[in-house]
Amino acid sequence: MNILVVRNDKLGDFITALPTLYVLKHYNPSNRIIALVAPLNRKLAQSCDFIDEVIVDDAPDILELMFKIKKAKIRASITLFSNTRVAIAQFLARIPIRIAPATKIAQIFYTHGIKQRRSRVEMAEFEYNLQLARVLFEDILLDFPKPLLRFTDENFQKFCGEYSITKPIVAFHPGFGGSSDANWTLEEYIELVKLTVENQTIDVVMTFGPDEEKLYEQAKELLGDTSVILYRSQGSIVDFAALLSRFKLFVSTSTGTYHLASASGCETLTFFGDSKFASAARWKSIGEESRQHHFMIPLEPEGRAKMFETVKQELKNFLLKGF
After folding, report:
1. Beta 169-173 vs 249-253: how paired, if at all?
2. Where are the beta strands (DSSP E) in 52-137?
3. What does DSSP say about strands 229-232 and 2-6: parallel, antiparallel, or unpaired?
4. Does residue 317 have a pLDDT over 80?
5. Where in the chain is the domain with CATH 3.40.50.2000?
6. Which residues contact 135 (CB under 8 A, 6 or more apart)?
7. Which one is the CATH code of 154-321: 3.40.640.10, 3.40.50.2000, 3.90.180.10, 3.90.1150.10?
8. The domain 2-136: what is its CATH number?
9. When comparing pLDDT for 180 and 14, which is higher?
10. The dihedral sign for the CA sequence 148, 150, 156, 158
11. Could you tell me the pTM of the whole model?
12. Regarding beta strands 267-273 and 53-56, do their DSSP bridges make them parallel or antiparallel, or are they unpaired?
């Protein structure tokens, strides 16, 4: 059976879809699993051995999207997060079985609209996604390996050679992105970085996205003459994930890079907004839960300052454990 799975939004959102793609493939290896993704996620989707084909949603035109879908000869689709445009495109493509959460107007274009009420946060986003696979196959097993993304050492060895890295790596990613709505200031990140540099058994890296040049320059100025490695992301998301898979700890806000790190097997220390919608209860990653350390940042200054001290202590505890 040709099965389309739609998650054509941001990086972290797509990573929450990976377990669903995996279980559908392993339910019956003869299933042909097709992922509809945003351009940003094309290479990551193509790197997954449980995805057989990738359709890139790179134009706003409904008919163009419909023709792409129709060409794949899909028997069933599972739209993990829907909007009217993708709903109409699938309807026009005449996919016989069309499954999606029941959301507003879009639900009339699906054959199976399932009420999930994700705003209640009764489970994590990736668990809501897995739940939709059960609509297609009632007896499907929802277990998946952790880490789900696996990579060779080639990129990491090249990275270590380029930056003369010889010790385990703790990385910090100070930027915002995705649905993140809480973070520390750059100055607070620098404080955490300097605390970590005191441990001479590790190497410390700060990572920056390709559009974070200003943040990179500010961090460089604030750090002065230290041993911290400032790394601007090069290559694809897959290349970056290969590096993350070999880091010992990744410290960031709850954005796509956090999801990528956890899905690749890196231990994470992550900051979330102090609300139900933005919480770790909804946005925990697909990695091993015991290797995810979550902190909710309060809005009020006093609570925020207290939480920052807690984070500093937890970071010290992690460093004392050693590698």
Report:
1. parallel
2. 53-56, 76-79, 97-101, 112-114
3. unpaired
4. yes
5. 2-136, 154-321
6. 78, 99, 112, 114
7. 3.40.50.2000
8. 3.40.50.2000
9. 14
10. negative
11. 0.94
12. unpaired
